[in-house]
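task queued by scheduler; priority normal; single chain, no ligands, no partner chains; default sampling; output format set to structure tokens
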Amino acid sequence: MIFDTGSTTFMILCTSLVMLMTPGLAFFYGGLAGKRNILGVMMQTFVSLGITTIMWVAIGYSLCFSGGEGGIIGNLDLAFLNGIDFNTPFGPNGTYPLYIFISYQMMFAIITPALITGAFVNRVTFKAYLIFLVLWQLFVYYPFVHMVWGNGILAQWGVLDFAGGVVVHATAGFAALASVIYVGKRRDRQSPPNSIPLVAIGTGLLWFGWYGFNAGSELDVNSITTLAFLNTDVAASFAAITWLIIEWKKEGKPKFVGLLTGAVAGLATITPAAGFVPLWAAMLIGIAAGTLCYMAVHLKNKLGWDDALDVWGVHGMGGVFGTILLGVFASTAVNTQSGLLEGNVAFFGKEIASVIISAVYAFLFTYLMLTIINYITPVKVKVEDEDLGLDASLHGEKAYDDGAL
């Protein structure tokens, strides 16, 4: 089988970029965590690279992308990639191997549950997290991938999600909220970020990888690919500066962590809309992301939810806002879908319904799942382990030599 070398190379590059986002997330979270819990949160992120890959090849891809139309989850016909080899074609007119699409989607599966970990920093045992990682993918992530991207019931209904506003960010964000409500508050909530430069490195890697996340989701190389790429950067930039200005005015000083957090909020918010909206809409979405996600974080603080690294406010609400704004700004001048501004009220309503369904289900199932896991093994760490820090108490390691500190 002869494949198009340009399309194949592009998809390999995008897959590699999305893989890089997981180490980037580890650096981002690791820098924000307290100095006694750096390795704990990074470990939770990196371990998904291994466990999720095993699950994806064994059953994940099949449960997401097999089965008939209109379902909730696929079947096991493609378990262990049965019937697929390196010559199986995929993409427009079979321009590249199916193996690349399988790998590309696997990288999404790896990072999605890892996003949740920032919410419950230094409060969850590693054994409980491993069970969580497996069950959450089986019962939350795989069904939503199938329903939205696997031609399942939401796709048949007309719901669109270019690169993961519903599938990735809304589900992970509201799972994070359920997690922090279940495990409760940290004993030390005043622990500052241990390394803001590490947060900056993580943000840079996430931003860089997000081009593969969004532009690659066109699954082809065309004008929409380039628009999704530019929309991604524009929204992130507008959101970063919006967050910076708001925080500067509110607190009197421009904060570097605020600038970085705003950029991530913009990236999360443009994700569902990147290939469906014009460039001017990406600018407005970026401004909305910087404003609304900032407000969501402050609402979380006011309500006393100890979402340590703002997973719900940035990723969860970013995915929700982005999906709703897709329903507003989608344009047939860009792609095949019209939004509210072009008179399509029905599509706008479907996008709102999709975020409600995903948020409610992810929240309720995650809370129930943690309750069940707690009967198998304790979910919350012991008080003495939390006080000592999970790096030493659970992993027997330190991020830095004491002399360096």
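post-processing summary
- The chain is about 65% helix and 0% strand.
- Residues 56 and 343 are 40 Å apart (CA to CA).
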